[in-house]
């Protein structure tokens, strides 16, 4: 298979993943973000990179959004939400964050393949994403992609869809959001 064929297969996999999203969970997640105070985003590895992109768009949409662990990130408190992107739902560092956030009265939202995981059970809100490379279809992998690539891509697409829904619900346009874009580049 050549590079373009691989790209086309990845897009097909993403279409199958998007078709499996639960509309009610997605709507509840967007509503939570709209009504919350500050939004804190975390994830490990590539999931964390997708979370960084999401926090950036939340900021563009006018939300006070932060990446956990950055030096300018304030403390979380009641009324805020911690969004965790974790395929397995078992990432120890994220579990510690979730426990701490809940102890301080903040909501925890997990976007994961495994809502039945430790983080999924601890979370106040869960969104189940497809995309596990461990899923088997008649002994075959559910994806041609390595490791958790399909989950991470689906995570970014889901996060971008949430931003579009929030824009729609708040009447924002891309032009308005661009006004919050970094200008010291």
UniProtKB/TrEMBL annotation:
Residues 29-172 form the SIS domain. Belongs to the SIS family. PHI subfamily. InterPro entries: PHI/rmpB (IPR017552), SIS_dom (IPR001347), SIS_dom_sf (IPR046348). SUPFAM superfamilies: SIS domain. PANTHER family: 3-HEXULOSE-6-PHOSPHATE ISOMERASE (PTHR43443:SF1). Gene3D superfamilies: Glucose-6-phosphate isomerase like protein, domain 1. This is 6-phospho 3-hexuloisomerase. PROSITE patterns: SIS (PS51464). It holds the Pfam family SIS.
